[in-house]
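As a warm-up, study this chain.
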Amino acid sequence: MNLILLSGGSGQRLWPLSNNVRSKQFVPLLRNEAGDYESMVQRVYRQITAQDPDANIVVATGKRQVSTILNQLGDKVDVCVEPCRRDTFPAIVLACAYLADVKGIGLDEPVVVCPVDPYVDDAYFAAVHRLSTLAGAPDAAHLTLMGVEPTYPSAKFGYIIPRTADPLSPVESFREKPDEATAAAYISRGALWNCGVFAFTLRYLLGAAHARMQFTGYADLREHYADQTKISFDYAVAEQEPDIAVMRFAGEWKDVGTWNTFTEVMADPAIGKVLMDDTCHNTNVVNQLNLPMIVMGCRDMVIAASSDGILVSDKQRSSHIKPFVEQVEGEARFAEKSWGSFTVLDVQPEATTIRIVLNPGHRLTYHSHEHRDEVWTIVAGTGRTVIDGVVRRVHPGDVVTMPAGAKHTLIADTALQVVEVQIGAEINVADKTKFDLEL
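Now compare it with the structure written out below.
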């Protein structure tokens, strides 16, 4: 099975746990079978590989999410990175060109495109596997969609109107997000929720792409990606294609896009250092700060605290958070990187304090800063520093100073925890020059 997982999002919906580099699908609020917390992307990957251990998975994403994906999934999946944002059609075409040119997937192979963040049961990915098989059949429609049987008349989703009530039916038409009364009328006609899952052969999709876009292959498309027109897959392909079928799916499927809906699937009502009294009702609390939180007498609320901020909201109102986050959003104070993570602990006019967690066998880039000094205090673990080419072993309690202009990096032999203090009149992310390092 060849899968393209679409991973996007701005990170505003689950603020303050999500931010401009950490979208909602990366926040670890669910539990796996071992009882450990996992994110939505980790859950989806686990479910896919349980259904098909040999699945060929490509995550299509933007530059900002690459480090987080690598941190959470490691090298288990391929990542196809958009050079810039051009909506879903160019992103899917780029991922398909990657499958064909880089991975060597045959043009007659079926490909399934899925969002990376549905909350679903295992039957969903069994259905995805079935969708792939249908799309690869000799008599298959050019495009085969999955449609979810609605459980209520929702105004949040688009609708697919099938021509028949059969498990696999030609598509009569698509409908944009309606009001609830119109949605009820659609459902009475057998309409299905459009969950954004569809399948095709590589030959079909690349043919459709070449009809709209000028490129010779993956490398050429990447080089000229910024020149491509921004357009969604629905507008570019689905609404123009007459030969479309839809496969019904009656299992669990939830779009958990806001705090209000996400709390329905969270592993625990309280996560972190939280004490809730017995007068609380239908309230979820997440505390990522190293401080105790006491919650009393709260009803129908979501409370979340992280290094990026604190949210206290009625659950229904939490879906209206976006314009408020836009007013306070700045540089992310927490981010997962391919090498570990960092958390901004304190910001002063001429000093910033950061906690760095470096995974075993990983290192920071070899770099220098022109306008700031840095001091590392090793809190836990062992590793090596390299400062202007000089290697030094470090242990808990060691303090290392890097003056402005010094080339430096940190290498983790075991898991390293470090407190970094940046000191200078001008501290910003742009003040960084990278160098090659040979050890």
